[in-house]
## 1
Amino acid sequence: MFERPYLKLIKTRIEEPRKFIQVVLGPRQVGKTTMMTQLLSQISIQSQYESADGISATSSAWLMQSWESARLRLKASGANEYLLVIDEIQKIDNWSEVVKQQWDLDTRDKVNIKVILLGSSRLLIQKGLTESLAGRFETLYLTHWSYPEMREAFGWSIEQFVYFGGYPGSAILVNDEERWSSYIRDSLIETSISKDILMLTRVDKPALLKRLFDIGCLYSGQVLSYTKIIGQLQDAGNTTTLANYLKLLSDCGLLGGLEKYSGDIIRKRASSPKFQVYNNALITSQGGENYEKAIVNPQLWGRLVESSVGTHLINNSIYERYNLYYWREGNYEVDFVLEKGDKLIGLEVKSGLKSDNAGIGIFAEKFHPEKILLVGTGGVPYKEFLEINPGDIF
């Protein structure tokens, strides 16, 4: 079975002396649970896996019972350590307070229970961590699968990755595109929105959030003002509501909204968003063109190539801790701007015959970036770029 690089890291952390709760975050269907199964088969520590997926949100008692069960099993086994893994932790109300209470109790009583928490909603998990568990945890964020991973695990070509994206569970369905599209829409998109957002967060206008997602996928890679977005929506909210809904979609690894780079934090936040999906499957599963037609349609294929570069950048920005923007001034623009500390990189994607772009030059004169990169025609082939870690560019 294919092993993601994160497995080695989490295994190393668990084999260390007990010090931190390990929190594994990531969108649905990126392999969090599979990685836990692999981990538990490779370590000698006795373990217990629990999932809150089917548990009532009010059942914080279930969490305490699971923990107490782990204590009894550790005592009965006579072992000196034990591992408790809890999946979909964000489903339990007040989970962070319960975890803090139980973890501190074990620390005080010198009970050597190590803990891994898994969750698919970054916003809800991080809120609980910062409110109750400060100083007690480490996080590990699992991104959508990269091109090298899909190639190694399933033998995919670069064209397949650009079109079908990086959902490993859907790989066996790509020869039946209608079935593949249904799987992405019903098992991934609908489940992520209904279970990770609508069931766990107050959303006054669910239909508006879903429509925003549809429009964001349709215009992925394009800048659209909130005023124009409202004009596209039948059930329009205000711009603050839309910005909040876009943040929820981003925290679930579905759709992000890149801010305009300006060197001024206030102006960045007031900018029109550039939509960017986290996985190209979110675009193509809802489009009208199939794979064979898409690869010979220059306009569509160019858009998908740029989007695949964007997915590569936005997914890695979380783990590599850099900020991702776009830049535009009048008719001049730069597709992506990467910022890490005091380092700035401008990146342009070109998939057509022409590779000239005056925007890059104007951006360089104005902001003096450390590097200017061209991906595609006249620059680094997009296949090669999707094989590197963007964090290594800095």
## 2
Amino acid sequence: MNKLPNESAIGVLDSGVGGLSTLAVLKKVLPHENFIFYADHKNAPYGDKTKEQVEKFVYDIVKFFISKNVKAIIIACNTAVSATIKKLRKEFNIPILGLEPAIKVAYDNCKERDIVIMATKLTIDGDKLKNLLKKLNIENRVKKLSASGLVELIEAENYSEVKIIEYLKELFRKVEIKKYSYLVLGCTHYIFIKNELKKVLGTKIKLIDGNLGIANHLKRTLTKLNILNLSKEVGKVELISSGTAKDMKKLNIFYEKACSLV
């Protein structure tokens, strides 16, 4: 017997482990839902790829999710959202939600000072971010920092806090951080280095990400479509990596880390 639509899983995708921070929040907000998380380690990182390459990678994962009869898809990767979501929504008749940098939340909460966003190059240069800033009329209020190479440091087998702190010090070297109220984390990977960010930037600037926003958006969408999982059981999570056995082991380790952060 096929699963009822309400019991079907929700697909969550990212280029690597960063989206596990999103998955952990999704599970907290929607504890009875089932999830399939796909980390595309084989093609990671997305941030230094072309828009066309990312489109192909994400399209293939979405097709995989469709074959698994998921009832909704979350793109838990700001880079992938920027590159693909318009085309995907036109082609597939299924709710596809994309994580966005929480710039509006930051701006709404503190309008008297400026905002910094750090993200991958593809996100920083992408039309989606530019259009959002234009829509809010805050192009001149947001400082954009392209953090190329940071994802690789976070996912490195020999993870080094020292190397990450050195990287962050160089990234923010010319930023007068006291001018800013919020640092928007424009990549889900960065949530795993909040402690390092606080060590470099201090505790006065507030760190913000889009995970709770996307989780609440998903809950509203499932409720509106009447496809919430009504089971009283805790939902299941299936983790998949397109990479190696080492990548799969890393996925399990970071999932435990992500769950401990929420």
## 3
Amino acid sequence: MTKTITIAVDAMGGDDSPSKVIDGIEMHSQESQNVFYKIYGDEEIIQKIITKKKIKKNQYQLIHTREKIEGEDSALSAAKKGKNTSMWLAIESLKLKESDAMISAGNTGALFVIAKLNLQMIENIDKPALSGLWPNKNGLNVVLDLGANVECNEKNLIDFSLMGSALHKALYPNENPKVALLNIGSEELKGNNIIKNTYQKLSSIKNKLYEFYGYIEGNNIMEGNVNVIVTDGFTGNVALKTAEGTANFITAELKKALSSSAMGKISSFMNIKNLTAFKKKLDPRLYNGAILLGLNSPVIKSHGSTDYLGFYNSLKVCEKTIKGRLIEKIKDNIY
């Protein structure tokens, strides 16, 4: 008999919540078996929405609270709001072993702080890392760190290599993780001392979970030669924002070019299939769901501005990390 997994959901975080959250749960519940949702938020508001959805009553539990973390709250002020916010209660359910994973589209800084206050780090992991999914020519990359740690040492980057590989294996069990260090060049002598020392150590480590590829430059991230890309949080966050901005720019400019003239509109109509595939490839909602790695339970961050489809995809990430035994894979392979 398949074990039911439980996902704790902060229903009040992010834009257009809780509507998009409940819509995402409805979509996810229609295709996923043996998943139970513990939904934290304003019961009066949520009840009006959820009764109109195709979500069975035995698939969820509402835990009422009117308190929530606001997007403009600082991480410190959010933590000081107390233990009755929807975000805190959802994370606390992990601490109490009432849930298997937790998801929120709320304030990122607050999520980090509250998660670290409630949850223990995995033994021998010094720092958590925020990882995300990026498309490449052959599938998807796991990229980390995306902003949790501005500065990292060699051990942190080696830990990130292991955690990112464990995540990729949990999400895509039929693929073998290949790790690369993001750098300003592909030659061994390029980069600062931390990067070069990490390269030497990873080259000498034999880990059954992943293969070390070497350096990768920013312009090769999407090539698909590797599927786990490791960097510090400063560089990773800059790369993430640059990629998001570039994708939005290309999509907007293409749309403008194809709608600005009669010939452009005709061309758009004739190539509708190819254009739809192109748009889908760059749709950030399909890659939504960043994971805070290093804690002893999965904490998933959905983008605050995403819609129900993006939240649904974050729930898929939640489910896969649990069924793929992410935490166990990290613990089994840590040095």
